[in-house]
Write a structure and sequence with these properties.
With 73 residues, this protein is mostly beta strands. It contains 1 helix and 5 strands.
Length: 73
Amino acid sequence: MEEFEIFVENMTSCGGEKYAKRELMEVTGESPEACVKKLSPWPVIDVRKNQEGDLVFLCGDCNGNLIRYTFTG
């Protein structure tokens, strides 16, 4: 098991990124994919690396609600 630091941004359809609820958490898991599967109520829409090289997962529902999980460090 590895320990991951994740920056979580919960965005609603009406508020978007500007009003996202943000939190930093530490999670233990076998992989980033396993952690997102355990944490997210919705399926993964996209996986990519940001400019800093951090792994970013975007999960969402069909109503415009999104959660972005950024694995830092």
